[in-house]
Design brief:
Blueprint: E1 3-9, E2 16-22, H1 25-38, H2 43-53, E3 59-66, H3 69-82, H4 100-106
Antiparallel strand pairs: 1-2, 1-3
């Protein structure tokens, strides 16, 4: 099984706004679009709704791929960290409840 690390990119600014990991990039992309219509609560969902109001959608870009799930989580985390100032991700990959906000504030991947 191949795991893909992907980015949702703003078509206006070209900023990376979300990083994710999936086995099925196109299906996951479509799910992001549908979730925004249903919920419209997170910053990512609000951003997608705003783009849609301008007849635009996020760009999907495959960043990396691997057959190893653990390696995929590591790649996802590194990509989130590399784009920490622009992403709407809420949680750090593979870190349970550790938030991206915590990492932004402390620069640490642990609560300790």
């Amino acid at each position: 099984m191949i795991y893909y690390i992907y980015a949702l990119i703003c078509p206006i600014t070209k900023d990376i706004r979300y990083i994710g990991k999936t086995k099925h990039p196109k299906s996951r992309y479509n799910q992001h679009l549908k979730d925004a219509e249903k919920r419209n609560k997170t910053e990512k969902q609000k951003w997608i709704i705003k783009l849609k109001s301008k007849n635009m959608k996020p760009l999907l870009q495959i960043i990396d791929k691997t057959e190893n799930e653990k390696e995929a989580r590591i790649l996802e985390e590194k990509t989130v960290i590399a784009n920490i100032n622009t992403v709407f991700n809420i949680h750090m990959p593979g870190k349970g409840s550790l938030s991206v906000a915590h990492y932004r504030e402390t620069g640490r991947l642990t609560n300790g």
